[in-house]
Request: fold
Amino acid sequence: MWNLTFIAEEDFTNHVKATIEKYGEKLESFDLKRFNKNIIDPIKLIFDKTVYQSSWEEIVSNEIFRQRDKSNNNDIGYFHQRIFQYIANCHVPPNGEEGGWDVIYENADGIEIPDAGSVHTVYVEMKNKHNTMNSASAGKTFIKMQNQLLNDDDCACFLVEAIAQRSQNIKWETTVDKRKVGHKLIRRVSLDQFYALVTGQDDAFYHMCMVLPSVIEKAVKDFEGTIVPHDTVIDELREMAVKQNIESEDLAIAMAAYMLGFGTYKGFNQ
Reply:
């Protein structure tokens, strides 16, 4: 039984599937050539394996995961932002349009802003994590929000953070041109608080999180295994290791790893 009142099951499922599809080429299987595309650091692999008391399978798997994960945050940002296109009174502008805002929330009945009265529109800039903006980026975002307030005296601007330091809806204070600035209608809001505001349900984000694992699992199954990668890196390393004529299998695999980064270096090229 579907228990999210603010989004239809079909819409939520389709959005999860769209997010999975955004993973795109990162779901392609890793062979040795792709694994070493940017030339791995064999010394680091061997330190990590030994210090963490891991197997070669674990270390290779971890490195593949690291390479895949580098750009996955963008895909999760897509999930956090575009889900609001299915939630009442929210609008997700096409990229770069309508001022470049990530989400625009409008409510004819008014939107209560703590210590600042009521407005009818909230413009949102979304970030995945609270510490992803440097001071220059934060200053630029704040100025953008100031300009919006100058052009529209019936709005507020939110910096919404998926991974905030805590649940919050507070006045955002930052530094612009070495001066501390803030405005009661420019706010720093955690994702749970934004869900609560737009849905009218305090624990809406919690309930979304509770149904998410099962919906992702079902969506992956619906792809009929086409997105499950079959990595061959460790098998190819073992094949290289056999050719090394080194009695210790562990050292032979280490030598195979060395050859990925140092194959043309003196001594290794013999």
